[in-house]
Amino acid sequence: SFRGYDGNSDLHVGITNTKGVVYNYNEEGVHRAETGWEQCISIPLVQPDMFGLLQQWDKLLEEFSVEETWLPHRYEEHDHNCYTYALAFINSILTAQGKQQMSKSEFTEKFVIPQTKNASKYITLHQELTTKDFYIVTLPDQE
């Protein structure tokens, strides 16, 4: 659960297909998970107007995931891991669109940090509400 995350350990990363199946990579290779990611932070990557890309997304993700690069014996905890897998897929999409690839730090700063900051605010609020006594007062209607 992200709720207990303290910011000092690594998080596991995956990419979903259009049906919500999470493709993720670890020392056992690429996995396709339909459950177990219910408490994840979702980072939208595809804009709603990118209908053509959405139609191809599942096929591109599956083809990418069966490449030799993602075989279990190639896994390396710090340099060839779930984050490398997700970023490499994103960069393959960007390349196919004729766009510039993103570095790990650029992707982290642009996409990951803003979402984790938002999640952290809600987690802090949740922790405060569950550990302290509180009550809600309804204010009279203002006209």
UniProtKB/TrEMBL annotation:
Occurrences of domain MKRN2 opposite strand protein-like C-terminal (ranges): 3-129
Signal peptide stretch: none
Highest taxon in the source lineage: Eukaryota
UniProt-listed InterPro entries: MKRN2OS-like (IPR032016), MKRN2OS-like_C (IPR053921)
Protein name as annotated: MKROS protein
Organism, scientific name: Anseranas semipalmata
Gene: Mkrn2os
